[in-house]
Design brief:
Blueprint (H helix, E strand, L loop, with lengths): L1 H23 L5 H5 L17 H15 L4 H12 L15 H28 L13 H13 L2
Length: about 150
């Protein structure tokens, strides 16, 4: 009886391992891949391109999907077939890293400039004559009186 128990345990482990590996690599679809790769001729996203080369690339992706390839495997195959320029997302090193860093830095600078400006506006808006300051004299006093008299009932 012991050998049968060992086989049952082994089969149970295999059965539990299969769904885990299937969940780790989901089946890719054409829509999943089309928005992350480019037509090498047009330079536009594959989902938007309609050139003969783009149609051939879509057929190639569909064949890879039918073969059960994952999204990453399909992208690797496209890079092998057409070169690194086929990927829509820039790589995260070298000059291509600036595609990710420049917008973040620009946003940080804009937030800093806005905070500095708001602080300055608030400080300038709080400037009022100190208590006990002399009232306006001369022409300014006359203009102030004229303006105030227009608003008094």
């Amino acid at each position: 009886m012991r050998p049968a128990g060992g086989w049952v345990l082994a089969l149970a482990m295999v059965a539990l391992a299969l769904p885990a590996s299937a969940a780790a690599a989901p089946q890719a679809s054409l829509n999943d891949v089309e928005d992350e790769v480019m037509c090498p001729i047009c330079g536009t996203l594959l989902e938007l391109a309609d050139s003969p080369q783009a149609r051939r690339e879509k057929v190639y992706v569909a064949k890879l999907i039918a073969a059960g390839k994952t999204k990453d495997e399909i992208k690797d195959a496209l890079v092998t077939q057409y070169g690194r320029a086929v990927l829509a997302l820039p790589k995260g090193s070298g000059f291509d890293l600036s595609a990710y860093l420049v917008p973040v830095l620009a946003l940080a600078l804009a937030i800093g400039a806005l905070a500095f400006s708001v602080r300055r506006w608030r400080r300038d808006g709080d400037r009022s004559p100190p208590p006990g300051a002399a009232p306006p004299e001369g022409e300014d006093a006359e203009r102030l009186e004229a303006d105030l008299s227009r608003y008094e009932p």
